[in-house]
Amino acid sequence: MLEGIMIGLGTAFSLTNLLMVIGGCLIGTFIGMLPGLGPMSIIAIMIPVAISIGDPSAALILLAGVYYGAIFGGSTSSILINAPGVASTVATSFDGYPLARQGKAGKALTVAAIASFSGGTIGAILLMIFAPALASVALLFHSAEYFALMVVGLSAIAAFAGSGQVGKALLMTLLGLIMATVGEGALFNMPRFTMGVMDLQSGFGFITLAMAMFALPEAMYLVLDPSRSNTEGGSNEIKDLRITREEARAITPVIGRQSIQGFLIGVLPGAGATIASFLGYAVERNIASKEEQEQFGKGSVKGLAAPESANNAACTGSFVPLLTLGIPGSGTTAILLGALIALNVSPGPRLMVDEPQIFWAVIISMYLGNLILLILNLPLIPYIAKVLAVPRNYLIPFILFFTLMGAYIGQNNATELLILVGLGICATVLRFADYPLAPLLIGFILGSMLENNFARSMQLYDGLGFILERPMTVGLLGLAVILVVLPSYRARRARLRAKGVADAD
Amino acid sequence: MALDRWIALVILMICLAYGYAAFFTMDAGLPPFMKHNPIWPSTFPKVLSVMAILAALFILLGFEKGADEPKPMDINYRRLTDYNLGQALMLLGLMVAYALLLRPAGFLPSTVGFLVLGAVALGERKLHILLPVAAAAAGLVWYLVQEVLGIFLSPWPAFFMNGG
C-alpha cells in the first residue's frame, strides 16, 4: 500500500496533473455555481476534453476535480441566492440562505467551505482505507459473482434513484441495457439491432447519450422555466468571512459525524450526495438540543455544516465502488466509468494491481483538490460569485453549443448531432413524466459488461447452472429481487391500508 | 391517460419490436458452429425484452401510482404552453440546423450563427456585444479543438477551401 501511495504521490504531483486538479476544480466551481446546471451535465460536457488528453490518470483527476468542484460551487449559489445549482446542495440552502439574508453571507460561505473541505478530506482518508480492502475481496470474485453484483447494483439504483417509483426506474434501466445491445459488440462479432443503419454499426455513442440524458434536458428546462435561473434578489455584499470560536466548536462534531455518515451513504449504490445531504441535515436536527433545533432553518451553522460535509464525503465515497468493483453507484460515477472505458482502462479490482498509478493518483489528487478548493473559495469568493450574474441569454446558447461540440468531438460525425437532438427531446419528455434518467445511462454503460460476465458464466457452466452452483451468486441475485420488490410491495400495502381506513369512515 | 402511461405504451411497442427481432429473426443468421454454444447473441436480448415488456406493462396498467403533487422544482407538462415553449422549440430547430450546416457551411459561420440566433431567440437584442462575444468564442473553440486537441474541423464553407 505504501508503495502504491508513493507512486500515487509521484503521479499526482506531476505538473500536468497538478494543472488538471486546479483546472478541474476551477471549472467545476464556476459551472457548479450557475443555477440549474448539475455535476452530471458539466462532467458530460468535459468528457471529450478529458478523453482527448489521452492519459487516463490525468483525465480521471480532471473529471474528479470537476465533480467535487461542482458540489462545492453549488453550495455558493444555494447560500447567496437560494438557487441550488445541484440537487445535493438543496439542503445547504435551508440554513445557508437565511444566514445570507441576515447579512452573514461571508460567515455562511466560510462554514460551508470548511465543512466541505473536512468532508472531502475525511472521505479521501476513508477511501484510502476502504478501497484497497474491498478490492482485495473483489479479486476473489468470478464472472458469475460479477454478473450478480452488477444486477444488485442496477436494482439498488432502480430502487433508490426514482423517487419511490421503482417500476419507472426499472424500466429505464432495462431500456439502457437494451440500448447497449445495439451495434457490434466485442462478444459476438456481429452487428445486432442496427436495422441496416450504418451509423448505428458502432452502437450509440456514450458521450452523445450522456449529453442527451443530462445536459440537454437541463438546458431545455432552463429555457422553458426562466425562474430556474433566476439570479435576482441575492445579497451581493460578502464581508467578514470569520467565524467565532463557539461556532467552530459547535460545528466540529457535526462535521466529524456527517463526514463518516456521508461517506458510507456515498458508497452504497443508488444513494448519493443528495440523499447524504438530506439525511445528514435530518440527523443533526434530531440529535441537536431543543434550543438548537429551533435555530434549524433560520440560519443555524450546524444545519449548514451537516449537509455540506455529508455531500462532499458522499461524493468521495461514490468512488469506492467505481474504483474497486468497476460498478458505478450514481449517474456521475457512471459517466466517469464511461470515460475510463473510452480511455482503455477497465476499472475493477485489477485496477489497483495493474495500474496503481491511476488508482492512487486519483485518491491523492482528492486531498489536493480539497485543499485547492479551500484556498480558492475562501479569499476569492466575492469575485467568483460575480459569475452568478452571467445573463441567461448568453448562458443557454453556450450550454447547447458545448453539448453539440461534445457529441461532435466524441464521434466526429454530424449525424451524431441529430441523434443527440432526437434523444435529448425524448429525455426531456421522459423527465416531464418523472422518469428518472440516471438509471438509463447506468444501464447503458454497464450493459456490455453485464452481458460479457453473463456469457462467460454461461459458457463456464454450460448453461444457467452457475446461478445455483455458486451460493454467493444466488444470494446476490436474491438480494436484487428483494431490493426491487420490497419498496413497491410496502407502498402497495400502505396504500391498501390507507384505502381501508378511508372506506371505513 | 397520463403522460407517463403513454410513454410506457411507446416503450412497450419498442420492446415488442425488439423482442420480436430477438426471438424470431436474429437466430436465423447464426453460423452452425455457434449453435452448440450455451449463449447466443440473442440470449441476453431475449431476457431483456421479456423483463422490459413486463416492466412497461406494470406502468401501463397503472400498478405504479405516480407522484400525486408535482414537485416544486419540476415543470408541469400539462401547462406546457405557460412556459417558453416557443423559445425551446426554436432552439431545438437551431440545433438541427447546426447539425445539418456544420459540414457544408464550415465551423466558424455556423457556430457564430448558432450562438447569435440562439441568444436572439431568447430575447437578446444588444447585437454590438453579442456578435463579438460569439465570434470570439467560436474562434477560441475552433483553435482549441483544431490545434490543442488535434481534431480536424473545417472552419470555412466548403467552397472557400481548395478541394475542401
Number of strands of chain A: 2
Query: How many distinct helices of chain B?
Result: 5
- State the assembly state of the protein chains: heterodimer
Q: Could you tell me the number of beta strands of chain B?
A: 0
Q: What coarse outline of chain B follows from CA principal-axis ratios?
A: flat
The rounded distance between the terminal residues' Cα atoms of chain A is 66 Å
Your description of this structure?
The complex is a heterodimer of chains A (505) and B (164). Chain A has 505 residues and is mainly α. Chain A has one domain. Chain A is 77% helix and 1% strand. Chain A has helices spanning 2-12, 15-33, 39-53, 56-81, 90-101, 105-138, 143-161, 166-180, 206-224, 245-267, 273-287, 290-295, 301-317, 319-325, 331-342, 349-354, 356-384, 392-411, 414-432, 438-461, 465-469, 471-504, and strands spanning 183-184, 191-192. A two-stranded antiparallel sheet of chain A has the order 1-2. In chain A, β1 (183-184) and β2 (191-192) form a beta hairpin. Mean pLDDT of chain A is 82; it is low at 501-505. Chain B is an all-alpha fold and 164 residues long. Chain B has two domains: 3-66; 86-160, no CATH class. Helices cover 60% and strands 0% of the residues of chain B. Chain B has five helices and no strands. Chain B has helices at 3-25, 43-60, 85-105, 107-121, 127-148. In chain B, α1 (3-25) runs antiparallel to α2 (43-60), α3 (85-105) packs antiparallel against α4 (107-121) and α4 (107-121) runs antiparallel to α5. The longest helix of chain B is centred in the first third of the chain and has 23 residues, at 3-25. At the A-B interface, α3, α8, α9, α18 and α19 of A face α1, α2, α3, α4 and α5 of B.
Features of the shown structure:
heterodimer, A: about 500 residues, mainly alpha, two-stranded antiparallel sheet, disordered C terminus, B: about 160 residues, 2 domains
